[in-house]
Design brief:
Helix content: 25-40%
Number of strands: 36
CATH class of the largest domain: Alpha Beta
Largest sheet: 8 strands, mixed
Structural class: alpha/beta
Number of helices: 32
Number of domains: 4
Shape: globular
Distance between the termini: 52 Å
Oligomer: single chain
Strand content: 15-25%
Length: about 900
């Protein structure tokens, strides 16, 4: 052994110990030689008393070297922990025993070692790959010493209905097994190739070091052969014992996961969560099987360790579920169905020709929900089941959503606008039990391997069902439920779920990184309904045209008649003035909700409106538009189309919708105050008004480096900082993103939004951009929105983006403008346009270094309005470095 040749390993960590074996694989009296990486001597030399011991167990074909970052972190005087990283027998630099050691033997071997070490509590086990099962086996056998468990990419159960991962199936094949795992080093090299980014050459060499020569790789082959592929395997009872034992494990637990793992996929994570539901879970997007190499796991692990005994994943005390006075989300719907208005229209659907294709009354909607709930329950959907809904807005989606919620299922909603890759990442991460979708969604599920039992919207021919792996349809389930007695139908959705039970996972737009699943409880969804009702006066009797899917689903909960116009809701720019007018006429609409991109196209196509269409829009009383800043000139154009409507632009996000609100008149007043300079703090951003009913808003001031490191909320005028929100309808958590959740709530009592803004002296909030998009120029911090708005006032500029290029602290401020009319190609702007853009930005106090132009800005797909500034920054860097402009 040459510990000095292992990058990241302190030589004094490496040690050997002789251990008396009690394993059935060995003869009585056998003594085995173990190799460990152990920082105990280092801690002692520094006079540090460890808080406990991390017992780290590697899998196949790695060794204790995998845990070097934990050894280094545990040696830090700030948080000393003894870290014992073992080399399992026949692996790493431990003894080659010449015996076949099965799972039960390896669990017993680990106990022999800890006895020899005299390891006492508190002990936290850490496991990866098959080392996860072994570490958990030790944990279950040592409850008095155990303080917690940490797991990274492992599994304790193989579902009987699905085969083992293809990579392991190949490795087990008789024609491949011996050569692939032992004779050659192929299995090792393939495993090492899973690292992302690739392992440095010296690290790869260190991983290979213990396995030079076929004689040292027998354990690698035996480990693979010991995988329990079915109940007939000799190690299946031991694996099942560990799996079942986890249900009773009540210590804190942490799961750190790499979702790009071809072996231990998210389905194994889901299984572990069902066994350890109290665990803290974080999925590192982009990371894979060798998570400890792909990401820093030491920092989150030690952050979690510091919370043991406080919030490190302790099992919550049992509580008695109860309604405690919180009306369920669907309360108004049920009341209307039972009342005098029961026969009136509740939900309408439009066809492409502008006609009403379908109507459901409140009574029919209530009955349809009850019937489908009964059918879904019979199919296995129950409390806690995750159901991914991939159905376009309309009556079918409304019925499916409320049926699932009544059953206590958790609905998973990921916008098709995320694109195939983003949608696939979201669905796989949420691991739904059921997937209900249209044919296109089911085809994607079959092709991309999305999890969940598949249910089609409509009845399909037998051949299509087999091809798509569809079990049944919503239509069939509704028929089945309708065939039950009224008593059984009512029983299917009674009693109402606990208000604090999970209700929905709603995915963000992904405009600032991978889309995040936002977890809501029933209480928080009901609070969102009440906030919207109180803030905007939307209640029973309102008639809503929802060109934005979430509001189409919220309509029945508000008691509002709802209709979605003929459009592709995943592409807001497809909404035309005629389609909006047809939908408004169909229900005599009083309220319209549409995104800024949808409104732009409505204004652009207003020439196609006739007298009837203008009349229908003229009866609208309230227009809401959110998702991105809405310029005053656009609202002015919309006001001419909806002359009687009060125009409002609520500010919010998937995590809290809405947060603040402002009317067109309020926007004009704020802009006038900014121009006159009469109200301190007015200007430099988009004024989004004042907090909505029940909400609190504050900021944490920015530091000179463009971060918001503090935790003290302030509301003083003119102080720019990260925006904080507090409200009953703020999310419960980020789904399976423990670190992201911890960061978002690190200011007690507040959700940190990631947006940047300030208040003016009148108490209005001005949004200046995203924290991630701040430009850190020399001696100044630039927030983008104020300068962008100034540039967009130029008559030859559409959307503008201000981005930074270069190292943090010395970034050049670059303006990227969408020209009107569209430029033929992207690249540097003409001197004339560049001069005008610089002059406009300078009026907003921003000095632009370079101006680039594009035919169209890259925007997020959901709103078609949020500019992808991160992508633009990379593109601008390439162009300014002399590269070919191409398309940003």
């Amino acid at each position: 052994m040459v510990a000095a040749g292992w990058p990241g390993v302190v030589p004094e960590w490496s040690r050997e110990i002789a251990v008396a074996s009690t394993s059935a694989a060995d003869e009585p009296g056998t003594v085995r030689r173990w190799h460990l990486l152990d920082n105990a001597a280092q801690l002692s030399a520094r006079g540090l008393t460890p808080a406990g011991t991390l017992l780290c167990v590697h899998g196949n074909p790695t060794w204790s070297y995998l845990w070097r970052s934990l050894l280094a972190a545990g040696s830090d005087p700030a948080h000393p922990w003894r870290v014992v990283a073992v080399d399992q027998l026949d692996m790493g630099f431990s003894e080659r025993t010449g015996t076949f050691r099965r799972l039960a033997d390896r669990i017993n071997d680990l106990a022999d070692l800890t006895d020899a070490l005299g390891l006492d509590g508190p002990v936290v086990t850490v496991g990866h790959d098959w080392g996860g099962v072994i570490s958990l086996g030790w944990a279950l056998a040592h409850p008095q010493q155990l303080a917690g468990v940490v797991l990274t990419n492992t599994a304790v159960h193989q579902p009987s209905e699905s085969g083992i991962p293809p990579a392991l199936r190949l490795a087990l094949h008789p024609a491949v097994h011996g050569w692939g795992t032992t004779t050659s080093d192929a299995f090792l090299r393939v495993t090492h190739s899973l690292a992302n980014p690739p392992l440095p050459a010296d690290v790869r060499k260190a991983y290979m070091a213990p396995y030079r020569g076929a004689g040292r790789r027998a354990g690698v082959g035996n480990f693979v052969a010991d995988i329990p592929v079915d109940a007939s395997h000799p190690s299946f009872p031991a694996l099942s014992g560990v799996a079942e034992g986890l249900h009773g494990l009540k210590v804190p637990a942490l799961m750190l996961w790499g979702p790009r793992d071809p072996i231990f996929s998210d389905r194994y994570l889901k299984d572990l969560i069902t066994r350890l539901p109290h665990a803290r879970v974080h999925r590192f997007e982009g990371a894979g099987h060798l998570l400890a190499e792909d990401r820093d796991i030491a920092a989150p692990a030690f952050e979690w360790l510091s919370g043991l005994g406080r919030d490190g994943g302790l099992v919550p005390e049992e509580t008695t579920a109860g309604a405690d006075g919180v009306p369920p989300l669907w309360g108004p719907l049920t009341e209307l169905a039972a009342g005098a208005a029961g026969g009136d229209t509740a939900v309408a659907e439009m066809d492409a020709a502008g006609n009403v294709a379908r109507r459901l009354s409140w009574q029919a909607l209530e009955w349809s929900i009850a019937a489908l709930a009964a059918g879904l329950r019979a199919a296995g959907v129950g409390r806690g089941s995750r159901v991914s809904l991939m159905v376009p807005p309309g009556a079918d989606l409304t019925v499916a959503l409320y049926a699932c919620l009544r059953l206590g299922a958790v609905v998973v909603v990921a916008d098709a606008g995320l694109g195939t890759r983003g949608l696939s990442r979201a669905v796989k991460g949420a691991t739904p039990d059921f997937l209900i979708g249209i044919d296109r969604a089911l085809a994607a599920a079959a092709a991309l391997g999305w999890p969940g039992r598949r249910i089609s919207m409509l009845d399909l021919p037998p051949a299509s069902r087999r091809l798509l792996g569809v079990e049944t349809s919503l239509a069939a389930l509704a028929r089945r439920g309708a065939g039950l007695s009224p008593e059984l139908m009512c029983h299917a959705s009674s009693p109402a779920p606990d208000p604090d039970a999970d209700a929905a996972v709603l995915f963000t737009s992904g405009s600032t990184g991978p889309a995040k699943g936002v977890l809501y409880t029933h209480r928080q969804l009901a609070a969102m309904r009440d906030t919207v009702a109180e803030t905007f006066g939307i209640s029973s009797g309102a008639r809503l045209v929802a060109a934005f899917a979430p509001f189409a689903l919220l309509g029945p909960a508000l008691g509002a008649v709802s209709v979605t116009p003929a459009m592709d809701v995943t592409a807001p720019r497809t909404l035309t003035a005629r389609a909006l007018a047809d939908a408004a006429a169909a229900i005599e609409a009083t309220v319209v909700f549409a995104s800024p991109a949808a409104l732009r196209n409505v204004v652009a196509t207003r020439g196609g409106l006739g007298r009837a269409g203008l009349g229908a829009l003229g009866r609208v009383e309230l227009l809401l538009s959110a998702g991105a800043p809405v310029p005053e000139p656009l609202l002015a154009d919309v006001q001419r189309l909806l002359p009687q409507a009060s125009l409002h632009t609520p500010y919010g996000m998937t995590e809290a919708l809405p947060v603040t609100d402002i009317s067109l008149e309020g926007i004009r007043e704020a802009e006038a105050d900014a121009a006159a300079g009469t109200v301190p703090g007015a200007g430099n951003g988009v004024c989004v008004g004042r907090p909505v009913h029940g909400a609190r808003v504050a900021v944490v001031p920015l530091a000179a480096d463009g971060t918001a490191p503090g935790n003290q909320p302030v509301t003083e005028a003119g102080v720019t900082g990260e925006i904080l929100v507090g409200a009953p309808h703020v999310k419960q958590a980020y789904d399976r993103l423990w670190l992201t959740q911890r960061e978002s709530i690190r200011t007690p009592g507040w959700h940190r939004t990631g947006d940047v803004g300030h208040f003016d002296a009148a108490g209005r909030l001005w949004v200046e951009g995203r924290l991630a998009h701040i430009v850190t120029a020399p001696r100044t911090v630039v927030t983008p929105v104020g300068a962008e708005q100034a540039i967009e006032r130029l008559d030859d500029v559409g959307l503008a983006a201000v981005v930074g290029v270069g190292p943090s602290g010395t970034q050049a401020v670059i303006a990227v403008v969408e020209t009107v009319p569209s430029a033929r190609k992207a690249g540097p702007a003409s001197p004339h346009r560049a001069g005008r853009v610089r002059a406009a930005a300078l009026e907003a106090g921003v000095n632009i270094s370079a101006v680039l132009e594009v035919p169209a800005q890259p925007t997020d797909i959901r709103h078609n309005a949020k500019i992808d500034r991160t992508r633009l920054s990379r593109w601008a860097s390439r162009v300014l470095a002399g590269g070919r402009p191409g398309k940003p």
